[in-house]
Design a protein that fits this description.
Layout (H helix, E strand, L loop, with lengths): L5 E7 L4 E3 L9 H12 L7 E7 H6 L10 E6 L13 E3 L2 H8 L2 H4 L2 E6 L3 H9 L3 E9 L7 E2 L7 E4 L10 E3 L2 E10 L1
């Protein structure tokens, strides 16, 4: 298994909802821009980042935007076949299989960061891993009717200061308030 640490990134409303009927229950362009910036930025311009997501998360991305450009999209599914996805998508049956593939020297050499981008089961398994470093959680200050939820953040994570350039004050867009927070495993 890969020994490379990884981070989770999510946006959740007050009831910890992260999705409804396969898509986001809110429209926040700046928050989506933040997600894209976080998951694409690298220090080494010759490298890219890997995104690990479940099948429902992948198909919840608008068709015109998937696979998410500029990143290696890894989809976890026990029911899909490679023919369900474009050839550049890496299909794995389990989280551990994805991490093993990312430890392959040829693949890992080109990967700078690994991001876990959903859904619930993938987030839960990732947070339980000793390789989980951080949770980047956008807390949406409203409640939405959701059918997918972010799991409880384990007690061994603590709130840390935001990275440089990431505002820590409350943001507002379309009348919706939200705040960027970072939790780090002790």
């Amino acid at each position: 298994m890969s020994s490379k640490k990884f981070s989770l990134i999510a946006a959740a409303c007050e009831n910890m909802g992260i999705g409804s009927k396969g898509s986001l229950p809110w429209r926040l362009k700046n928050e989506l821009k933040y997600f894209n910036q976080q998951t694409t930025k690298t220090i080494d311009g010759s490298k890219t980042n890997a995104l690990i997501m479940g099948r429902k998360t992948y198909f919840g991305i608008p068709e015109s935007k998937r696979p998410l450009p500029g990143r290696l999209n890894i989809v976890l599914s026990t029911t899909s076949t490679q023919s369900d996805y474009p050839s550049e998508v890496l299909l794995c049956k389990t989280f551990n299989e994805a991490m093993e593939k990312l430890s392959d020297p040829v693949l890992s050499e080109g990967i700078e960061n690994i991001w876990i981008v959903g859904g619930h089961t993938v987030y839960k398994e990732a947070m339980d891993s000793p390789l989980c470093h951080r949770v980047y959680l956008t807390e949406i200050m409203a409640t939405y009717d959701c059918d997918a939820f972010f799991p409880a953040i384990p007690a061994d994570f603590q709130l840390v200061s935001n990275d440089d350039g990431l505002p820590s004050d409350i943001q507002e867009e379309n009348g919706i308030k939200y705040q960027y927070k970072i939790y780090e495993k002790l």
